[in-house]
Amino acid sequence: MSENIIEVKNLRMYFEVSRGLFSSETLTLRAVDDVSFNIKKGDTLGLVGESGCGKTTTARCILKLYESTGGSIKFEGLEVTKLKGRKLRQLRRDMQIIFQDPYASLDPRMKVGDIIGEPLIVHGVANASERSEIVFNLIKTVGLAPDHYYRYPHEFSGGQRQRIGVARALALNPKFIVADEPVSALDVSIQAQILNLLQDLQNELNLTYLVVAHDLGVVRHITRETAVMYVGKLVEQSPTEDLFHNPSHPYTEALISAVPSLDLQRKMNRLVLRGDVPSPIFPPPGCRFSPRCIYAKSICSQEEPNLEEISPGHFVACHFPLEESEYAY
Amino acid sequence: MGMSLMSQSELVDQVKRERRFRNRLIAYFKSLLGSWTATLGLIIVLVFFGTALFADFIAPYHPTQDDYTVGMPSFQPPFTIPEQQPFPFVFGTDWSGQDIFSRVIHGARSAVLAGTIAISVGLTGGILLGAISGYVGGSIDNILMRVVDAWMSIPSFFMLLIIVAALSEQPWNPAGKYTLLIAMFFVGFMGIPGYARIIRGSVLSVREMDFIDAARATGSSEARIIAKHVIPNVFPIILVYATMGIGGAIMSTAGLSFIGLGARPNQPDWGGDMNGARSIFFQYWWPMFFPGLAIFVVVLGFNLLGDWLRDVLDPRTRDV
């Protein structure tokens, strides 16, 4: 068993939202509500869930782009949430992020070489000539051509821009990279290229990834471990293949049933959820999934289930975890 | 085809050469000459500034009649060749025999001053308010923007009338000596909220972009983020609005002079000259026509140049 590089414990991120135009009252939006998970060194954790469930917020808390409301985040045993100043800058060298939208994540007024080299300047890592050499190497590593150094982001396609984003994330030799929906803005054919690039880099550089995604196909392709979020809570976490074969939470089952497949043997009817996703401002009592759950019993809307280990490495937060699912594949 | 025959290092060198600063300037200039509207705009603006700077050397006659040793004939139509004076009256002469062409040339000075003063005041105020509002956000943003809203709800020309009229009869302003400068200042002042809004908007939109978060995630300081990411992305927008705003400021100041608040009597000023010739327009059109034409051409020039700047300063729309 290798050691954990990231340990997230009881992470909470609440936002205050104003009630209305003329009201000074505020409401609390519980974007992330008591989430805990660990990531092992060299591993890849997929964080899945629908939009608005808090997965990106969780990722941004880990990178300290948001000040979390409560809980603890440890990076190699170091408490991240309290870090400030020089210590925080030091930490930033080890953790990087790849963004979802390759059109918004690159400064349109900077040349590609300057974009990739900026982290090096910020940390004063190398002098000008060493820096350009490092940048040229990074450009090669991510599969771009040297003359791209002097070009502007708008001259590139989405996939190429994402490669630039990857190169920037790699510039400081980080240990841990958050990929926030790294391929959801790209064409399917390009998605595979970027995912394979990420995997190759992981093997080469011994990186640890947290991949935020809503596409289960992407998650299955790239991760070893998957955590499912629903309205700010973790509902299930398990090794990825196990999750697909034995989804234990009814929400996970519904997600998996929605994955399109070319397998004709597979049951074709989808499990369609009724109703809307509850608001994270007014979460339902008990299990947050209970109003939409087809298996819900009365206890589900009264008592909140805890995340419990039902088989080795497989955690689920449900009063009645599924024994076996006909939607598994 | 040619590209594929080049080796990788040759290609790198070529792109590097293209991107060098001096070559970029040349490329900008070529792109400017490639568009006839931009070229026209640039020529107009250059001629305008040149005229203002060298008015004394260009103007064939003194702009006001008090210097003339020989009385000049009044109301000579354009292109009259006088008998006793050395130069033709290209734009004709006015009621007191002053050469309109010389007056229009000297009037460029007050127009340059109007543009410069008004734009400096408007931009300084606008950048301060807009940048603080957009960057700090929260309740400061709210307060500043409500002030701006209130400011904008005042009809600016009406406000200008009141302010300039009130200040033109002060003991420290004998015979309206400074009235024109006051008018220019307040034309800029009333433009502040407009600039503040635009700048706030662009600061906000830049601040929300992922590349700002990316910079933060690499450990960039706030100061570095502002200097390297926010300003370079907002500045071109400001430049475009400033260029177009100069035309507007010249027009507003001329408008004030036209209704008698601004230039002193007989001081060469396009708006003031039009005002003086207003009552005789139907007998003698040229004393009013040529200063008006000057305003029109200069405002057009700044707008054409601004249009081109907007395209060329955005790396996404320029082709250099």
Structural class of chain B: mainly alpha
Per CATH, the architecture of chain B is: Orthogonal Bundle
Strand content of chain A: 15-25%
Q: Helix share of residues of chain B?
A: over 70%
Strand segment tally of chain B: 0
Q: What overall form of chain B do the CA principal axes indicate?
A: flat
**N-to-C terminal Cα separation of chain B, in Å?**
21 Å
CA-CA gap between termini of chain A:
28 Å
Task: Work out the radius of gyration of chain A.
Answer: 21 Å
Give a description of the structure.
- The complex is a heterodimer of chains A (329) and B (320).
- Chain A has helices at 55-62, 85-94, 112-122, 128-141, 158-170, 188-205, 216-222, 240-245, 250-257; strands spanning 4-18, 26-40, 44-48, 70-75, 78-79, 95-98, 176-180, 208-213, 225-230, 233-239, 308-311, 314-316.
- In chain A, helix 3 crosses helix 4 (128-141), helix 3 packs parallel to helix 5 and helix 5 (158-170) runs parallel beside helix 6.
- In chain A, the strands form 2 sheets. Chain A has an 8-stranded mixed beta sheet, with helices on both faces.
- In chain A, strand 4 and strand 5 (78-79) form a beta hairpin.
- Chain A is built from 9 helices and 12 strands.
- Chain B is mainly alpha-helical and 320 residues long.
- Chain B has a single domain, classed as MetI-like (MetI-like fold, Orthogonal Bundle).
- The two termini of chain B are 21 Å apart.
- The model of chain B has no long low-confidence stretch (mean pLDDT 87).
- The A-B interface holds A 60, 63, 65, 88-89, 92-93, 95-97, 99-101, 104-111, 118-119, 122-123, 145-147, 149-152, 154, 165, 168, 171-172 and B 8-9, 11-12, 14-16, 18-19, 209-211, 213-220, 224, 228-229, 232-233, 314-316.
Give a concise summary.
The complex is a heterodimer of chains A (329) and B (320). By secondary structure, chain A is α/β, with parallel strands linked by helices.
Question: Secondary-structure map with pairings?
Answer:
The complex is a heterodimer of chains A (329) and B (320).
Chain A: E1 4-18, E2 26-40, E3 44-48, H1 55-62, E4 70-75, E5 78-79, H2 85-94, E6 95-98, H3 112-122, H4 128-141, H5 158-170, E7 176-180, H6 188-205, E8 208-213, H7 216-222, E9 225-230, E10 233-239, H8 240-245, H9 250-257, E11 308-311, E12 314-316
Parallel strand pairs in A: 3-8, 3-9, 6-7, 7-8
Antiparallel strand pairs in A: 1-2, 1-4, 4-5, 9-10, 10-12, 11-12
Chain B: H1 2-5, H2 8-19, H3 21-34, H4 36-53, H5 55-58, H6 100-136, H7 138-153, H8 156-167, H9 179-207, H10 210-217, H11 222-258, H12 270-277, H13 286-312
